């Protein structure tokens, strides 16, 4: 299967546009809470600085006089400690407030992103899922959103708090001592040089780690889906070998990313310690030798030095997390920015009253196409007349799959397609559903170009039973009702009887309320296929598509399934992709396909009389591969 472009660009730089878009996502939905969080962070940061500055006053104005006094009065010190204790308490309350609100904002934002992602995914064309590994898409929902959650809850608040602290502490240090501030600034410049060099190396590895993790998830998902094939063809050793190769790549990128990231904090910490020692040494000389600084001022400045270096180290440590999260955000927004399935159709499906030739407000069991023209519309009764007119199509421009295909299916006819794998049979079904649009020619439905029909209405008129049955987690009744959510229990049972499914369902312990897993357990393959037929029967569509619906079941079960399908096909235009030619002998027309072209057409008898490709297939001279 071909793969689309990478979901993540290999870029280790912080994308400001992505960051702004993420912030808008948060602020737009939580304006008041975000404002309160910012105010709370600001107050908490300022209080932290105030407490450091208070050190000067505590030593110079309260402790030193007590030491020097022969009759010390502890009341001023007591009042000062109560004051600073109150300040600390206020800071703690605001810190608690913003942490509590941050949890709400973080979880709400990630919930909103998941909602929007899933809504977008449901609007994407089939082509997107044909060209993107499903495991990588799942990685967006899990790994990428989780990295965003961490950034919103930890990194961004810490950035804001650190920024406020750095600015306020820097101003405070300038006020206390300009010479000592120059020393601190010099050491900070050294820190930034180290950070820049390590960030360039680790940032690219963190993004590679995200890509490698997505590839590993994709591979695991693929192996889980194909576990039976792996077992049957004893492919375990090769699968293990391939997984180890992918996992080794993930190990290398993770090791290199975390190696540089883990070096960062110790190096910055040591540079911070050197800055502290230099400040203490030179500050001590200024205070003792030149008597140009009080002990309280020096103590306060050293506390501010710690307060200045710490947020710089914290910001530096968080940068890799932010870059990795922005890479994840880029993947998320790339998916969100994919083009949704285009639907320019204006023709809709309506209930039709044959007697009055008008739209009916109530369900009549008859349908018509409402075809607008300027300010008016005309009603075209839905009959199931499908025509391919000189249709050519390719999944990409370099490889054409169908070449100038002409065919027609009149209402109520059964049209069968046979041919080798890759002949174009399933492609024809994809085009009828408008999963893809033709590049040349046209497909008409009751005389209307399908491109003019709204896709939801087009697909509502088509029932489909696939070779690979897909049942969802839930009850049997819920699975049948996928075709019509408003169906009554009686209608569900009627559809099951038509499909020959009612007999086995009623013998299950919980009947129609039997709960199924996503793979259809505990039902057999034949029973799952009967549920699929019941689902199509409940849809009651005038056109039916059967895509090799009996190829994966045994001959005995096939007779039951075939009987159900025969009932379903009665009075419906039916397109059948056949693997077993015995199931299509009664078709009105059989199309023999090869390399995207119809090379023979006719009914069963006329094709046998020709003694061409169909004759060879039917007699076993050649096999359908």
Q: Mind describing the biggest β-sheet?
A: 6 strands, mixed
Low-confidence regions: 1-12
Question: Could you estimate the helical fraction of the residues in percent?
Answer: 55-70%
Mean pLDDT over the residues: 83
Brief digest:
The chain has 625 residues and is α/β, with parallel strands linked by helices. The chain has helices at 16-29, 31-68, 75-123, 126-130, 134-176, 178-225, 227-232, 236-288, 295-336, 425-432, 455-460, 476-480, 489-498, 502-506, 525-539, 555-569, 604-610, 613-619; strands at 348-353, 358-359, 367-373, 376-381, 386-393, 402-409, 414-419, 440-445, 448-449, 462-466, 474-475, 515-516, 543-547, 573-577, 589-594, 597-602.
What report would you give on this structure?
- The structure is a single chain.
- The protein is an alpha/beta fold.
- The protein has 18 helices and 16 strands.
- The strands form 4 sheets. It has a 6-stranded mixed beta sheet.
- Helix 16 links the parallel strand 13 and strand 14.
